[in-house]
Amino acid sequence: MILSELHKLHMIVEKDTNAIKYIRKAISIIRGEMVFEDEPIYAEEFEQAIRLAMPNIEELEPLFFNGPDSVIQPFYTDTLNLFILTEKNFRALGIPEDSLRLYIRWWQKDRDSLNAFSNIAIAFERLGKIDSAKYFINLADSVYIIEKKYYERGLFYLALYKTIRNPETMIRAVSSFKNIQGDKEVDWCIKNFIADLPEHYTEIEDFSKAKQVFEFFGSFYKENPIELEYENLRRLIPMFNFTGLNALGMGDIELSIKAFELYRIFSRRLGADLDFTTACNNLGLACRVQGDFDRAITLLREGLKFTEEIAPNDFVGSGFLKGNIAWTYFNMQILDSAEVYFRRAKAPLESLWQNEQRIQLHGQEVLAFGYAGLGFVNMARKKWDKALNNFFECIKYADYAGNTFNRSAFGLVYELIGEVYLELNEYDSALIYLTQSMEYLGQKKEGLLSLEQVFFPSVTMWVMSTRGRIFELKGKNDEAIKYYDLSIEILEKFRSTVKGEEKRINFLMDKMKLYEKMITLLLKMGKYARAFHYVERAKARVLLELLETKMIELPAPEDKNILFERKKIEDRIKNLKEELQKSEGDNEEKNKDLIKNLRSALNSYDSLLSRVEREKPELASLINVNPVSLSGVQQELNKDLTVLEYYFTDTSLFCFVITKNALKTTETKIDMNTLSNLINYLRSAIMNVDEDIYAEPSMELYKILIAPVAKDLKTEDLIIIPHGLLHYVPFSALMDSNGSFMIDKYNIGYLPSASILRYCLEKKDKPKKSIVAFGNPEFEDPKLSLPSAEEEVKEIGKYYNNPLIFLKKEATEDKCHVFAPGYTIIHFACHGEFNRTDPLSSALLLSRGMDIVDDGRLEASEIYGIDLENTRLVVLSACESGLSRITKGDEITGLIRGFIYAGAPTIIASLWKVSDVSTGKLMSSFYNKLNNGLYPAKALGDAERELKKSGDFSHPFFWAPFGLYGYGQ
C-alpha cells in the first residue's frame, strides 16, 4: 500500500507544483512503523532529513535493498523510496536555501524529529559513511539530552551498538539507562555486551578493541558490581588477560595491572584454577615491571603454592611463576636467589624432554624464560660467554611468542645479545642483533626512528641507546648523541604511563644509565652547557611531576582545572597515536585526518604549557619537565654568587661550577660505595657529641667534593645542588687540610635542582611585614614538651612589630592553614617527623584542634595546599625537618619541596634531631641578624659561626644541622 501511494504521489508531483501537501500525506502513511519496541516512528519530518542527506542518497540505496535482514528492514525499504522521491520533488519545487535552513532550525526543536535523526544515523553507520552518521548522531543526541529522553537515548545507542558493535555506543546506552535508574536495562545491556565478546583473543590487532571493552567494563564494574553468570565470566576473563599482556608489552603498565587484577578476581570467582594461577603470575609480573617488588613476590608465591597444591605436574604454570620470582630477585640485585629460581623454572621441563621426549603446552616459553634469566645473571656478573650461550638457547624458542609482552621479551633478548657483543668489542655482530631485535618486533625502518614510530618502548629505548654506544666507540659522537637523545625521549614517554610517585621512582632505578651515557659523552666532547641540561633533566623527574601522581591539595581551583585539562589532552594524544599505529597503511585519507587531529592536540598541549609557564611558574615546574638551560641559570645569578651542581655515575663524580659569566666542570673518579660509607661515617661521627671523631671523614669528603673546585670558589655565597646521597651531607661541616670548616669561609644554601631557582628569585623582593610563629605544641605525652622551643618563639617575637604567636594547645594545624598565608615569615618550633617510605606523609607535629580533621599533623602533602605567595621565609626549627627521601633518579621529596611549591622562596630546616637549647640560641641570633638587615644566608651563616665559637656548642652536632634551602641572598 505504501509503495502504491508513493507511486501515485510521484505521478502527481510531475504535474502539480503544489505537491508538497501530497508528500506530507504519503509520509503520514509510514507513521507508526516500529524501530524499537514500544517506540513509534514519527516520520513526518523525514522530508528535511532527506534534504540534509541528499548528497549521499545514492549511496544509501544498496544498503536498504541489499543489507542484512533486521527488524527495521521494511521501514528502511520504504524510507529509501521516500528519500529518492522527495529528493526529486525538492529539486523540482526549488525550495530556497534560506527557507530550508529556517525550516531545519524549527525541525531540530520539534519533539517528534528524533526518530528521523536516529534512523538516518543508523542507516549511514550501516553503510559505513562515518562522517554522515556522526552528523545525525550528534543531532539526535543533543535533542535527546535537551528533552531529557534518556530512555529513548538508551534505545537509540543500543540500536547503534547492534549495528556497529562499538563499545562507546554501549557506554552511552548504559549511562542513559542509569540516568533513569533503569537497572534491568543496564543489567541486560552489560550481559549482552559480554555475550558479544569473542571466546579467544589471538591477534595483536585485537588489542584496541579489547582495551575499549575492558576500560568500559572495568570502570562500570567498579561502581556497579552486578552478579554475573558462568557464561558471562567465561567470556570476560580471556579479555582481561589479553588486555593486560598486550598493555604490558606496549608499555601501559597501569592498564595492565588493572586488567590483571580483574582477571585474578573473576577467575577465582569462576573457579578457574588455571586462570587464577596465571593471573597471580601475570599480576606479579606487572608489579615487578612497575617496581613494586614486595607485592610481586607475594603474588607470585601465592600462585606457586596454589599451583603445586592443585596441579603438581603443571610444570608450565609453576615454571612461569618461578621464573617471575627469579626476575624479581634479579631486579632486587639478589643474583644468587635469581639464579636458583631460573634453574628451578626450567629443570622439570628439561627433565621431561630428556626422559620422555615430550614437552607440555607453552613449555617452550618457560624454557626461553629460564635461559633468558640466566643470561641476565651472567651479564650482571660480566660472564659474557656464558651470557651469550644462555641467550642463544633462549631465541631458539622465539617463534613461540604468543602475545605482545612475550614478543617484547624476545625482542629484548636480541638486543641483549647485541650488548654482549658490544662488551666483547664485536661491533658488527652487535649491530646485526640490534637490527634483528627491531625486525622481530615488526619495526621495518632501520636506524634512527622518530618518536611516533616507536611501538615497543621498553625494548626500543635500549636498542637506540646501545646503537648510540656503538657509534660513540667508533668515534662518531654526533651520531651517538642522536641515538642517546632518542632513547631518553622514549624513556620519558614510556614512564608517563606509570602512575604514582613511588612507582615512578622505582621504574627509573635501572634506567638512569640512559642519561648517564649522554652526560658522560657530552662532557667528554666539551659540550658542558648541554651536559648540564641533561643533568637537570635526569634529576627533575618525579620531583617535577609530584602533583599529578599524588592526592595533593592545590591552593587554587584553577590549578586543578589546569591539571585536568592537561590530562585530557594527554589522553587524546595517546589515543590518536594508537589509532595511527593501527591504521598505518590501511586508509590514507583516515591517516591524514588522524595526523591533522594529532597536530591539533599537540598544539593545544604546547599552548597550555606555555600559558602555565607564563602565569603559574611553580605549577609549570611540576607538570612540565622543562629543565633550565645554563644561560638561564647564569642570567639569574648575581656576581657574588657561585652555584655547585653535582652529578655522579657508578664510577665518577662530576661537579659544575657556575658563576655569572663562567662554567667549569670537574670529574673525580670515585667508587660510590666508598662515597656512601664516608657520608654515613661523617653523620654518625657528628652524632657522637662526646668525641671529636668527625675530622677524618670530614676531611676525606672535602678532598672529594670541594678540593677539586676550591680554587674556583671566589664568592662568599654558595648554592649547592646535591645529587643522591649528597643531600645528606652537611657541607658546612666539611673541613680542609688546615682544619677550617666550610662555614668559616662561606654562606651556604641548597637547591633540589637549578630549575626552581628562577621562581625562587621572582619572590625575593616581597615586602617585609611580620611573623607568625608556632611553638611547643601540646601533646598527651608530657615527655614531648619543648619548653626551650616556647622560649625560642617568645624571644623571636621581640624582633618584630605585631607578631602573631601560638603556643601550646593554641599551636594547631588549623591555625596554620588560616593565618600562615598572611605573613612574610613563618616559624615552627616543634617536633618534626620524616617518613622514609612515604615522604609526602612527613609532618610537622602541632597541637590537635577541635575539628576531627585537625589531627595536628601538618603533612607535606597538605603544605602544597597552603597559599604562601606573601611569604619570604619559612623556618622549620624542628627535628629532621630538612630530611627527604633521596633516590638515584629523583633527588628530594618531603617538607622542603612542599613549602617551595606553596610559595616560600627560602626555607631553613635541619638534617638531624637537634638540641632544643642550642637551637633556641641559634634561632635567636639568626633573627637578630636578619632584623638588622642581613640577608637570610648571611644571617644563618653568621649565627652558625657565632654558635660554633661558644664553648658549650662548638661541636658540629649543634651548629651544622641547619641548612638554607631555596634562595638566601
UniProtKB/TrEMBL annotation:
CHAT domain: residues covered: 697-966
Pfam families per UniProt: CHAT, TPR_10
Record's keyword annotation contains Methyltransferase: no
UniProt cross-references to InterPro entries, sorted A to Z: CHAT_dom (IPR024983), TPR-like_helical_dom_sf (IPR011990), TPR_rpt (IPR019734)
Segments passing through the bilayer: none
SMART domains, sorted: TPR
Stored Gene3D superfamilies: Tetratricopeptide repeat domain (1.25.40.10)
Protein name (database record): CHAT domain-containing protein
Species: candidate division WOR-3 bacterium
